[in-house]
Amino acid sequence: MSDEQHPIPEPSPDKGPAHAEAGRPYLTTEKPGKHRGDPTLWDNFKKEFYADNTFTVTLFAIVLALIFGGILMIIGDADTRAQWGYFFYQPLKTLEASWDLVSKAYTDMFKGAVVNPDTVNRWYWDMTTWQQVFRPISETLTNAAPLILTGLAVAIPFRAGLFNIGGQGQAIMGAIGGGTVGILLKLPAPIVILLAILAGALLGGLWGLLVGVLKAKTGAHEVIVTIMLNYIALYFLFWYIRQAAIDDPNRSELISKPVPDSSIFPKLIDPALRVNLGILLALLVAAGVAWLLKRGTFGFELRAVGYNPNAAGTAGIKVGWTLALTMGLAGALAGLGGTTMVLGTAGNLTGEVVGQIGFNGILVALLGRVKPWGVVGAGLLFGALQAGGAAMQTFSGISNELVTAIQAMIVIFVAAPLLVKAVFRLRKSPSAAASAALAKG
């Protein structure tokens, strides 16, 4: 028979399966596995981005902190504050003055923390050196290195159910250990640097281990113990610098002999830039901690104790021993942070050698959600704020203390996700809802 007598029927989406079952051909132009109306990758990204997931909440927390920082700038500037007295008479001029102040300040902060386009343009026309182009990012990385290490020193105990507020004291002891080796030992540079790193980690680790042992044996609360040990470490540092082998006889202030150039951390890019071995050390340590928590046996025991110490003990895990080792490991990381300050930037021991890196490490850990790579990101952000804050104060006249306020507000908003969700009206994360449904099922 010819095709004219028995024509092939037109494909019908409604009757396709029935025709197929009847042995008739079923024609379709759709690709296998692909259906009309399926969301694209871009659709999924948009739905997930403007939802209450961790990334979006953290990002909007930073935005809110910058907004409040701008309000503080306006309040603190006398001319702009006076202009607001004429808001109803000159509203546009008032808003313009406020915008000019805040935008210039944050632009100067960006130029001091990441890159200055003016410097790039001048380098292009051979009016400055390439080192000046990389100076902002160099300062950011230099500031971030000790913050990452002390942030990890808070994050690891937190995963075990401990709150290590003693990173400041542990960093001081690490600075003493690393600085002493750098000042006194006259050995080849690689050997001295390696020994200084080990000494800083060992002394800081012992300072943290003491807290863990007291916690395990006597039940002493780690917050109280670490606060007291912070003061002990600080005043021990004052006494230690005055010892004859350490004190600089040519200086009247509280300062040690300088660390020889051979014992200083080598610069990574150029001697004219401050970024040094410390940032590589911090990244390697973060990678090691991430592996330990995810793959290591001790990391599993640590997390198990943090989830439920009673169940962990029933399963055969030595809870007291795990807590003690956890605090010892945290102290070693904070000690590395102190060593990085002495051998990376300061070059000698002083009463303020570690600054506030121990306490800032708490903020870094909380912003990083106590996850190793989250701590790295938070450390880089806080390092950028510190580097940019100095430039902002120099060029815009805004006090560098505002950076501390912005850091604190970031952590406040991160710690209050419901507030961030309410302000930006974030919807429920599709992936989180699916995971919750799967877990419930």
Largest sheet: none
Q: Which H/E pattern describes the elements?
A: HHHHHHHHHHHHHHHHHHH
Beta-strand content estimate: under 5%
Oligomeric state of the chains present here: single chain
Q: Which overall shape is indicated by the principal axes computed on the Cα atoms? A: globular
Structural class: mainly alpha
Mean pLDDT: 88
Q: Report the end-to-end length measured between terminal Cα atoms.
A: 58 Å
Give the low-pLDDT segments.
14-22, 435-441
Brief descriptors of the model:
441 residues; mainly alpha; 70% helix; globular; disordered C terminus
Describe the structure.
The chain is 70% helix and 0% strand. The protein has 441 residues and is mainly α. It has a domain of 240 residues. Helix 3 runs antiparallel to helix 17 and helix 9 runs antiparallel to helix 14. The longest helix is centred in the N-terminal third of the chain and has 30 residues. It is globular and about 65 Å long.
Q: What's a concise summary of this model?
A:
The protein has helices spanning 16-21, 41-49, 54-76, 78-83, 91-113, 117-124, 130-159, 167-184, 189-218, 222-241, 277-295, 297-307, 309-314, 319-346, 357-367, 372-396, 401-415, 417-424, 430-440.
Q: How are the elements arranged and paired?
A:
Blueprint: H1 16-21, H2 41-49, H3 54-76, H4 78-83, H5 91-113, H6 117-124, H7 130-159, H8 167-184, H9 189-218, H10 222-241, H11 277-295, H12 297-307, H13 309-314, H14 319-346, H15 357-367, H16 372-396, H17 401-415, H18 417-424, H19 430-440
Helix pairs in contact: 3-17, 3-18, 5-16, 7-11, 7-14, 7-15, 7-16, 8-9, 8-10, 8-14, 8-15, 9-10, 9-14, 11-12, 11-14, 11-16, 12-14, 15-16, 15-17, 16-17
